[in-house]
Structures are given as C-alpha cells and as structure tokens.
Design a protein that fits this description.
The complex is a heterodimer of chains A (about 160) and B (about 575). By secondary structure, chain A is of the alpha+beta class. Chain A has four helices and nine strands; from the N terminus they run βαββαββαββαββ. Helices cover about 30% and strands about 40% of the residues of chain A. Chain B folds into three domains: about 170 residues, Thiamin diphosphate (ThDP)-binding fold, Pyr/PP domains (Rossmann fold); about 170 residues, TPP-binding domain (Rossmann fold); about 170 residues, 3-Layer(aba) Sandwich (Rossmann fold), CATH 3.40.50. Chain B is an alpha/beta fold and about 575 residues long. The chains are: A alpha+beta (about 160), B alpha/beta (about 575).
C-alpha cells in the first residue's frame, strides 16, 4: 500500500540527503518526493510517497524521527487527507492536414480534465494538469494517441483534512 | 570576547570537561593544533600513529569512563582514515565527538589538496554531523555535538571545520544553560502504565529471562539491573556488548547468548515464557533464525531508541526510555507492590536451567603439549580476579575472551561488537589506559588482528602506556578458518597467515618488553611476568592452530540447534 508521509525538517544544508540517504541505506523505496521551504523559511516540508507493509512503514516513520533535523513526521495516509500533484505534458501536434482537428480534440480533453494549455508552438502544446494520481493517469492516457514528447511531474503533496495535524 | 575559531574549539572542549584529545595533525588542522599547543597542560593530546588509532583510542576512553571521547583529525585522508573508527563507535552507540579539519570554505568543492566531502562520507556512520561554514555557528555546533553524542542513544558526532573558519575571529560567549534542539528530544522516562504492566508480566511469568545488552552499560544502569535480578531471583543473560553488567560468577548469570552463547543461555531463550530485553537490539548474531527465537515467550523491550523496538522481532510490551530510569521505575513498583512475595514459584524453571548448566558447554582439554587459547584467558582472569580492563580485536580470541573472562564489573570490556573491527583492541586499550593510568589494561588479540593497528605500539611507548598485549597466535585468521572448516569443507582460502613477524623482536624494536610462550606450563609464569612489568608488554602465545569456538549456532540457525564442542 502507498503511504504519503509528511516530514517537517529544519531548512538547512544537507537535510534532504540525510532523508534520501536513510531510504537508500535501509532499502526503503521512495516513489516520489517533493520539498520546499515553508512558513518562516526556517523549516522545509518534505512530502514523500513510499510503499511497504505495516512494520516497514513503522520503521520508516521511526527512522525519520530519529534524524536530528527532523521536527515532525506524519503519515497522512493514516486518515483523511487531500493529495495533489502537478504534471506538465508536451503534446506534439505536427500532423500535417490533421493538425487542426487534433488540436481541437486536445482542447476538449484539456477542458474535461480542467487542465490548461500553458504554451503553444506550431508543432506542440504544453498542458498543465493538477489532481490526484488517478486523474493524472487518466488525462495522460487520453493524450497518448496524439503523441507525447515529454512529461514532468512534481510528485505528490498532501495535507490532512480538517483539524487533523 | 573576540576569539578565532581555533581558540573557540579549545574553549568549548575545556567547557565540556574534556582533558584529553586523541588525534593526528595535518595542514588544514594547523590553527587548531596551534591552540592545543598553547593550551599546555589544560588539554593533553595523544598523538596516535594512524587516525584510525586515534578514533579507537577515543572510543576506548569513552567506553571505559562513560565520558564523551574526543578525536581530532585533518582533512582528506585524515577524515577517511577516521571513518572505520566512526562506524565502529556508531554500531556500538559510543559517545564520541570527532573534529575534522576541512579545506578553506572558498576551496570546498574544487577538488582541493586533501579535500574530501567528509560530511557526505560520514553521514551514514555518525549519529549526526556538521560542516561549520561560518565561525559564528562554531560554539553552538560544538555544544550541540557533545549533547547529541551523549544523550538519548549515544553515538559519534563529527564536526567538520574549514581551515579559514578556524582562523576567523568572532564574538565568543561562554556556554549558558542547556543545549536546546527543537527537533531532538529523546524520551527519558518510561510510560508509567507500561512500567506497571511490565511488573505484572514479571510477576505472572513461570519462566522469565532477562536478556540485556550494551544499553545497560551506556546508561550506567547496572546497579538497577542487579537489584531487579536479585529481588525477583531472575536468570539473566548478556549480549556480547552487555558483558560486565552482572557479575559473571553469580549463579543468576547464564553467560552470553547467541551465536557463541552458552548452552544454558540459548536454551533458556528458547524455553522462556517471558523475555525481558533491556538495552539490547535483537541483532542477528543474538537471535539466529528469527522465527525460532524465543518462540514461547512474550517479549518486553526496554530501549531508549524507538527504532530498535519491533525492528527485528515483534514485541508485546515496548517501553521507550532511558534504561536506568525505566529500571528505577520498575524497581520502585516492585518495592511498592512487594512483587517478590506475590510472584509464581519458579523452582521448576531453575531446575531446568541447572540441568542445562551441567552440560558444561565451555569445557576444553588443556593437554601437556600445546597451549589452548581458552586456558590463557582463564589464567588471565584468575590472575586479575576478573577486574582488569580487557580490550579485544575480532575473531576467535574475542569470543573466547567473552566466554572465559568472567567480568565482575561494567565498563571493563572494550570490544567492537556491531561492526566487528579488527585492529580495534590495541588503540582502544590505549584510550582506557590514558583514562586509568593505574589500572591493569590488557589487550587480548590474535596474530591477524594485532597487525591491523600494530603501529600504535609507538603511541604506547611515547606516552608510557603500560598496556599488556596477549597475542593468541595460531597462524590463522582463526574465525574465518573455523567457518571454512565447518561450512566450506576445510578449504582454507587465504586464512593461513603463518608468515608473520617475530612479535617479540617487533615489541623490542619499539622499546617494549616482548615475551614468547610455547608450553602450557609456561602460561602462568609468562602472564605473571608480563602483568607485573611496569611498561608496555607484548606476550606471544603459540596456541593450538586449529581449534574452534563452541558452542556455535550456524548463521541463520535456531538457537537451540547449537554445534557443541568435541568433548560434548
């Protein structure tokens, strides 16, 4: 099962390598990881998605807590939470006579997924789409037939719902 | 007060109560060394002959005293040579602060002369590490380093100081108050409800067993442990790291458990109905086959490190906290409840244990011709009343020392348990001898291990450290040879090291006393002469070439499936 783990750390040099080094040294898996400073810039929030059975997740949480610059570790998957990921997709539209209809179809898909076109050239479009994992996969699958030149994803970020920390 | 980084280093060391530093100088460390020189008698420095020796010496000092050991090395190769020492201390949770010099800040990342990414290299073998880029952070970082090294589950902390930082001035304020790190707050007291539950489980158990490790020593908890053991009349076994917590000659003590544990200790684990693990971490050398480990037992686990709990073995009652405080809490409940009067009669359990003990699983036969290693260690134990500080290297001699030296006290046993570092013994003994100049400090080593840091004889002589070295010389890398004999059809691949220096002459070349012993009847006289000599002594005992450490649980086997010795 996938677990979304939120790790609040001191915003200092080397802290990300301490976290990622812990995962590689102990053979834990990182599916995605995102990190940025939060609040007063004194701390950073790392959101990582990992997999494993109960005892492995328990070890991951404890080992993260053991790192000196780690302030707080929360397994968001323990309760209700909202998770989001941003994806940019570059679609090729260089198809000669069919190009115009292809562009129209792509625009329809973009609107269904509440995505946006954020760049256009005569031969390509860049589409920005935000959502949970399922939505991104579905959107990507719909765009696949038009020819995807490149995809980039941020990895998931998440917050617990309501008053839960 | 405006001070340079190097001056701040010395100030902070003195402020932490440090009186001895083990180290080796170099270009990037020059400013710091200059200040140590100026500090004169206030701060003594022991010059090792290799940085690994300096780290192990600081480690031996820490194990013997309980204080934080301090090492100082230069950048690049100085730091990389320190890595084995850091990893050794990390695996055994030994409080060390290692200061490494670094190339000047503007050169970092430029592949400068003697530059390595020390913080990157040591990240996974330290409890924490720092690169101090700004001299204004230096005092705070050093104070944090000491606090982190000794609190919670102890461990080595490295502070990397670039050369220009050590030569830059800043305002220095003496330490005021406790170190406060918002992201680091070790749990000290055990949860009171868990503590009560533990006492209830102890009271109800028919076949309880205490299994204790290095955590008892690190937390200075042996008095509390002894009280608990005697108050509830419990059988007790130690891990390799736990030896000395309970006196070896007391009937409650079953000896060491695990791969080379005693028959009675391992069978007690396999048959107990309550296993109380105290400051031990269910290492693979202790448990053997996990699924067959303590199969009938409920398990209580007391440890300061939450990650140790339920890592290898699922426990029924975890208690996170400082081992000494938790044992104090348990003992208080026992006193209050008068548990010793309420608990179940355990005569049957003790009878089982006494039956296993009758097997005398450590028996060996000292014949008239060839010296047996076990005999040398037993003789040493009787000549020193089990009161010497014993340092070892790694291999057969280490296991025999654990089995045959009956420790009476804690902090007398210096051995690399987790990492298994050959070359640890001699420098660790130096560290202990520096801390306790008047005490008998003995290295038990092999002809393989001693050659890994034999250059430290020079350090012993320079500082007149009267360390006694006992080489159990069998011309083999004995433990590996034992595995080859038992599991690789006696194909002795690269384990015959019969070509060795004349150790007696080598000792003499350094200016130490060298003694050689070939005959069983000379063992006691040689030991007496060596132990009585006021200076450094190396005793070379020519022992049985192919003898094995028994009992032995083959790797991955169940504890009760021990291979017993030829005599049994």
């Amino acid at each position: 099962m996938k677990h979304i783990i939120s790790v609040l750390v001191e915003n200092e040099a080397g802290v990300l390598s301490r976290v990622s080094g812990l995962f590689s040294a102990r053979g834990f898996n990182i599916e995605s990881l995102s990190v940025a400073p939060v609040g007063d810039k004194q701390s950073s929030r790392i959101t990582l998605v990992t997999g494993g059975d109960g005892p492995i997740i328990e070890q991951i949480l404890k080992q993260l807590n053991k790192l000196i610059p780690v302030i707080q570790v929360v397994n968001l998957s323990d309760g209700p939470h909202v998770g989001r990921e941003l994806m940019l997709i570059k679609v090729t539209t260089d198809r000669g006579a069919n190009d115009k209809s292809a562009r129209e179809e792509i625009m329809q898909i973009v609107s269904i997924f509440r995505a946006q076109v954020v760049d256009a050239t005569p031969t390509s479009l860049i589409i920005e789409v935000t959502g949970d994992n399922d939505k991104l996969h579905a959107c990507l699958a719909m765009l696949e037939p038009y020819g995807i030149a490149d995809v980039v994803r941020t990895g998931q970020v998440a917050l617990a719902r309501g008053n839960r920390k | 007060m405006q001070l340079t980084g190097a001056e701040i280093v010395v100030k902070c060391l003195l402020e932490q109560g440090v009186r001895t530093v083990f180290g080796y100088p170099g270009g990037a460390a020059l400013y710091i060394y200059d200040e140590i020189h100026k500090a004169g008698d206030k701060l003594s420095h022991i010059l090792s002959r290799h940085e690994q020796g300096a780290l192990h010496a600081a480690d031996g000092y820490a194990r013997a005293t309980g204080a934080v050991g301090v090492a100082l090395v230069t950048s690049g190769p100085g730091a990389t040579n320190a890595v084995t020492g850091l990893a050794t201390a990390y695996m055994d949770s030994i409080p060390l602060v290692c200061i490494s010099a670094q190339v000047p800040v503007p050169l970092i990342g430029n592949d400068a002369f003697q530059e390595v990414d020390t913080v990157g290299i040591t990240r996974s073998c330290t409890k924490h590490n720092y690169l101090v880029r700004d001299v204004r952070d230096l005092a705070r970082v050093l104070r944090e380093a000491f606090y982190i090294a000794k609190s919670g589950r102890p461990g080595p902390v490295l502070v990397d100081i670039p050369k220009d930082v050590s030569n830059t001035k800043t305002e220095y304020t003496p330490a005021n108050g406790e170190v406060n790190i918002r992201s680091y707050r070790p749990t000290m007291k055990g949860h009171p409800r868990q503590v009560r539950r533990a006492v209830e489980m102890l009271q109800a158990a028919q076949r309880p067993l205490l299994y204790t490790g290095g955590g008892v020593i690190l937390a200075n908890a042996w008095e509390e442990l002894r009280w608990l053991t005697l108050a509830l009349d419990l059988p007790i076994t130690h891990t390799l790291m736990g030896l000395g917590a309970f006196p070896a000659n007391d009937r409650h003590f079953l000896g060491m458990l695990g791969m080379h544990g005693t028959y009675e200790a391992n069978l007690a684990v396999s048959n107990c109905d309550l296993l109380v693990a105290v400051g031990a971490r269910f290492d693979d050398r202790v448990t053997g086959k996990i699924s067959a480990f303590a199969p009938h037992a409920k398990i209580i686990h007391i440890d300061v490190d939450p990650t140790s709990i339920s890592k290898n073995v699922r426990v029924d009652l975890p208690i996170v906290g400082d081992v000494r405080l938790v044992l104090e809490q348990i003992n208080a409940v026992i006193r209050e409840e008068q548990t010793e009067q309420k608990q179940i009669d355990r005569q049957a359990w003790w009878q089982m244990i006494e039956e296993w003990r009758k097997k005398e699983c450590l028996r060996y036969n000292q014949g008239p011709e060839i010296i047996e290693s076990q005999y040398v260690i037993e003789s040493l134990c009787s000549l020193t009343d089990g009161q010497a500080i014993i340092a070892t290297d790694v291999g057969q001699h280490q296991m025999w020392a654990a089995q045959f030296y009956g420790f009476q006290q804690a902090r007398n046993w210096l051995t690399s348990g987790g990492l298994g570092t050959m070359g640890y013994g001699l420098p660790a003994a130096m560290g202990a001898q520096v801390a306790f100049p008047e005490r008998q400090v003995v290295v038990i080593t092999g002809d393989g291990s001693i050659q890994m840091n034999i250059q430290e004889l020079g350090t012993c002589l320079q500082y007149q450290l009267p360390v006694k070295i006992i080489i159990l010389n069998n011309g083999f890398l004995g433990m590996v040879r034992q595995w080859q004999e038992l599991f690789y059809e006696r194909r002795y691949a690269q384990t015959d090291i019969a070509v060795a220096p004349d150790f007696v002459k080598l000792a003499e070349a350094y200016g130490a006393l060298g003694l050689k012993c070939n005959r069983p009847e000379d063992v006691l006289p040689t030991l007496r002469q060596g132990l009585a000599h006021p200076g450094t002594v190396l005793m070379d005992f020519q022992v049985q070439r192919e003898s094995n450490v028994y009992p032995m649980v083959p790797a991955g086997g169940a504890l009760q499936d021990m291979i017993l010795g030829e005599l049994l």
